[in-house]
Design goal:
Elements lengths: L10 E6 L5 H11 L2 E5 H9 L4 H12 L5 H12 L7 E5 L5 H13 L5 E7 L2 H9 L1 E4 L5 E3 H8 L15 E2 L6 H24 L3 E5 L4 H13 L2
Parallel strand pairs: 1-3, 1-4, 2-3, 4-8
Antiparallel strand pairs: 5-6, 5-7
């Protein structure tokens, strides 16, 4: 149970296939609610850019579409949880991704007196996900993500699509957005989704939404779930 001091009844996990919009929605929710986003993918990409054996192992996993070693992930998650604001709702973006990670997260939150998380599954078709991923670019400076089709509409041909319109950094393709990595990630994630859905449904901490609609429609669905929990 969450302590009275925090007044947080639930923490949340945004789960979905690659391209479902987890990171984008997490940012929008944090702008409107007292939420602290824990984006493990962003943290791991930052760690991957560092020299050393840990960075090398993370880069290898990202290139092939495999999961990063649990020992590395557990250390990162534990470090992050030691620094969270206990008065805010925690929103995990893309984590956990396996049953072992689920057990670890539940145990770490319980040990710290934090509420156990509810999983929100963002469901989109494989075809739609691939279309989103193939057009996704990320700024190597500020970390913001963009869709090429949105940039083309916004910039109207007046600026190169390789430059971040926010900070001027370089827009690059993520290591895990290559065609080979995308295909492998789908194979892995489809199996894990079924396993995690069963776990969270059994615990009474699972809800899913169809996320193929507009960003505004999906955002409103998520706001309603979080506010009503």
């Amino acid at each position: 149970m969450q302590t009275k001091k925090t007044k947080v009844r639930h923490n949340f996990i945004l789960f979905g296939m690659p391209g479902a919009g987890k990171t984008t929605h997490a940012g929008l929710l944090a702008a409107n609610l007292p939420i602290q986003v824990i984006g493990l993918g962003r943290i791991l990409r930052e760690r991957a850019s560092r020299p050393g054996i840990t960075g090398l192992r993370i880069r290898r996993a990202m290139r092939t579409g495999d999961f990063v070693d649990d020992r590395i992930v557990e250390k990162v998650v534990s470090d992050v949880l030691d620094r969270v604001d206990p008065t805010k709702i925690l929103l995990f973006d893309g984590y956990p991704r396996s049953l072992n990670q689920t057990y670890f997260l539940d145990s770490q939150l319980a040990r710290r007196g934090q509420a156990l998380p509810m999983m929100i599954s963002l469901n989109i078709t494989k075809r739609e996900a691939i279309a989103r991923l193939s057009g996704r670019r990320q700024c190597d400076a500020c970390g913001r993500q963009f869709q090429l089709k949105d940039l083309k509409k916004k910039l109207n041909g007046n600026r190169t699509y390789s430059i971040c319109p926010v900070c001027g950094g370089n827009l690059v393709t993520r290591l895990d957005d290559t065609p080979e990595a995308i295909k492998h990630r789908f194979e892995v994630m489809d199996l894990q989704r079924k396993i995690l859905k069963h776990y969270y449904q059994k615990a009474g901490r699972f809800v899913e939404i169809t996320a193929s609609g507009s960003m505004k429609t999906n955002h409103n669905k998520l706001m309603k779930i979080i506010k009503g929990s």
